[in-house]
Write a structure and sequence with these properties.
Layout lengths: L1 H31 L1 E11 L6 E15 L4 E3 L7 E4 L9 E9 L1 E10 L14 E4 L4 E5 L8 E3 L3 E3 L4 E9 H4 E3 L6 E3 L3 E5 L4 E8 L6 E8 L23 E4 L5 E7 L2 E10 L5 E12 L4 E3 L2 E2 L1
Parallel strand pairs: 1-11, 8-13, 15-21, 15-22
Antiparallel strand pairs: 1-5, 2-3, 2-4, 2-6, 2-7, 6-9, 6-10, 7-8, 11-14, 12-13, 15-18, 16-17, 16-19, 19-20
Length: about 300
Amino acid sequence: MKTMKSLFGLSVAIIALLTFGLFSCSNDEAITGEGQIKLNITDAPIDQEGVSGVFITFTGIEFQKDGGPWQTAEEFEGPVTINLLELQNGRTELLGDFTAGAGNYTGLRFMLDAPERGRNPSNPGCFIEFEDGRIEPLFVPSGAQTGYKAIGEFTVPLNGTVEITADFDLRRSVVEAGASGIFILKPTIKVIVNNQAGGIRGNITNREAEINYVVYAYEAGTYTEEESADPEAEAVRFPNSLSNTGAEDNGNYMLAFLAPGDYDLVVVAVDAEGIPTVVKIEEDISVTSREITVVNIEL
C-alpha cells in the first residue's frame, strides 16, 4: 500500500514538473519568439491647389513594444522617397517587411529627411511639387528630428505576420505658414491593422462641373459647423475628421482603413478658388471589420 502511495505521489510530482516545464517553455517562447510586420503607407488628399506631388523621404523606422524603449527596424533599406499624393482612395505602397519580437506594440515612429525651419536645403528630401514645375521644401518644427510617432497599436503574432497601414494624412500634415510661401510638415499619422479595418465607398451624383468634392468621415455625432470655419494660422479646416478622400472625376469615392464604428460623412464642394462649402451630411454609417459599406450620395 505504501508503495502504491509512493508511486502515486511520484506520478503527481512528475506531472506537475512536466506541466510547469510546458508552461515555462511556452512563456519563454512567447517572450523571445518573433513574427513579421508588413508595413504599408497610404494617404488622404491635400488642401493646397495646384499641387502635383508631395514627396516624403523616409530614412528610418522604429517600433516600441509595450511602452518600452524604441527599437530600430534594421531591415529597413532607406532612404526611400514616396510621392504620397499617389496613394489615395485606398491605394497603398509597401514600405517594408520587418522581423520583430512577438507581442503588443504601442508605438511606430518614422524618421524623415526634412530640414528644420530656417534652413534652406539645396536638395530637400521632403518637398511639394506644383503643376507649374515649382518645388518648395517641406520644413519641420525645431526639434522634430526625433521622428514622428503614429497613433495606434498592433500585435505581432508568434511565427506569424501582422499587416498594418500607416495613414499619412497630408491634408492635416502639410500647412502653409500664412502668406510666407513656407510649407511646414506636421505629420498626422494613424496606424490601422488591415484585417481589423473596414471602409466606405460610393458615388456622388448630381455634381456640378468644375467643382471638386471631398468626403470627410467623422465619428458619429461629433461634426459641428465650426469645423468648416476659416482656420487660424498653420491650421486646417475640418480638424477633427478621422479620414477624408477626394471624389474622382466619375464621382466615385473611397474611404479606406476605417476602424469599426459609426460615422457621419460630410460632403464638401471646393470651387475653383479653393473655397469649401458643405453640401451634404450622411449620418450614422456603420463600418465593420473586413467589409466595405456602400453609401451613394445624391446632392
